[in-house]
Design a protein that fits this description.
15 strands, six-stranded parallel sheet, 3 domains, alpha/beta, TIM Barrel, Rossmann fold, 3-methyladenine DNA Glycosylase II, Chain A, domain 3
């Protein structure tokens, strides 16, 4: 059973039935509908309403029952999911990417070092291998690891990936039983264990691209953890980037920190660009600035993670905000270049921003830049500044 919506709850309340005590406000809400919406969000307890029918209590408690257990391993949480599709609410705990290492292998120390040292940055956050699992450790202890015996004792369902269609079918079946039916027999998080590249001669050696494609599918539907016996930096970087997109809250825009970023050893004559803190816009622009032969600053204004035009239409990007950002980071004292290049989509704001900057005596001139980030390189070739 899925979680109840506000409208589904409202149908059981006095106001929906037009009975006595309709909108009585005893719950602290102005109407029964307001209470139903808050109850659906979990912001009020069901006991707040003295008129709740027993039928609704029973249905509500069943709907709130955890669909999948949450298991924490060395600080990494897996499971705890309550929906089939993230747009229904959100996915909670990212699929853990794990590496299984054999302590008796000749190259163990070298592999362990590579796995331990591996780190990439996504949205300005460091990402590492989530779990390192050891077999044949013979009692030897390594930091931030656990043995395969310890892992197998956890309340986790392990699927050995022998055939893609079967693994995909099993993952879907288990998640649906857990979510739709709240079946406790399927409530354990699910881990997919990939076979090593060549465990036995009879096994086909999988191509890295095949592993990546299968792992990407399992991250989307519905593995809570993946175990690899072969570690490849490019594979993990790819899967971590995908995972970051799948396990973001669709109700919250992706955003980066509002500040002034530097590219290619800036100095007082570096170019100056401006945009909002919408993550996709930032990384598109940042990628182009990193590729330039010239150094540059990128002023990122706070805009609740909205894109340029969306922020402008919602009044989250204003001329006053540009001035506030410039003052906060004191850019005027750091550069001799006095030209700030704004996105072409904000050309209509040039005069307004210029007026605010002049009023603040910051001494910058506003220049209209490109609409698309991919055109920045060509723009710079012909730009004098």
């Amino acid at each position: 059973m899925m979680e109840l919506s506000g409208l589904q709850i409202f149908k059981y309340l006095p106001a929906a039935k037009k009975s006595e005590n309709s909108n009585c406000k005893k719950c602290g809400c102005p109407t029964c509908m307001a209470f139903a919406l808050k109850l659906a969000k979990g912001s009020v307890p069901i006991e707040s309403c003295p008129e709740i029918p027993e039928e609704l209590k029973e249905i509500f408690e069943k709907s709130r029952k955890a669909a999948q257990k949450t298991v924490e391993i060395n600080g990494t949480k897996i499971g705890g999911e309550n929906v089939l599709f993230r747009h229904e609410k959100t996915f909670l705990n990212p699929t853990a990417l794990c590496v299984l290492l054999d302590c008796e292998a000749a190259d163990f120390e070298e592999k362990f070092r590579r796995v331990s040292d591996f780190e990439i940055s996504i949205l300005n956050k460091p990402r590492k291998v989530d779990l390192v699992i050891l077999k044949n450790s013979n009692g030897k202890i390594y930091p931030n690891t656990l043995t395969i015996e310890e892992f197998e004792k956890l309340p986790i369902k392990i699927i050995f990936d022998e055939e893609f269609s079967k693994t995909a079918k099993d993952l879907k079946f288990i998640r649906e039983k857990a979510i739709k039916e709240k079946d406790e027999n399927f409530s354990n998080p699910v881990c997919v264990h990939f076979a090593p590249a060549c465990r036995e001669e009879k096994e086909r050696t999988p191509h890295l691209n095949d592993i990546c494609a299968k792992a990407a599918f399992y991250i989307c539907k519905y593995a809570n953890a993946l175990i690899f016996e072969d570690f490849d930096e490019a594979l993990f970087a790819t899967l971590m980037t995908l995972r970051e997109n799948i396990f973001t809250d669709p109700q919250k825009p992706l955003k980066v920190e509002s500040k002034i970023y530097e590219f290619n050893e800036v100095d007082e004559n570096s170019l100056i660009f401006l945009t909002t803190n919408f993550a996709l816009t930032f990384f598109a622009v940042a990628n182009e600035l990193e590729s330039l032969k010239r150094s540059s600053y990128l002023i990122v204004t706070p805009a609740d993670g909205m894109s340029v035009l969306t922020a402008w239409s919602a009044e989250k990007f204003t001329a006053k905000m540009v001035v506030q950002t410039l003052k906060k980071h004191d850019l005027a004292s750091r550069v001799k270049n006095r030209k700030i290049i704004i996105p072409g989509l904000l050309a209509h704001m040039q005069k307004e921003i210029q007026a605010e900057i002049d009023a603040a005596n910051l001494g910058f001139d506003i220049v209209i830049g490109t609409i698309d980030a991919c055109d920045i390189a060509d723009f710079v070739k012909n730009f004098e500044g």
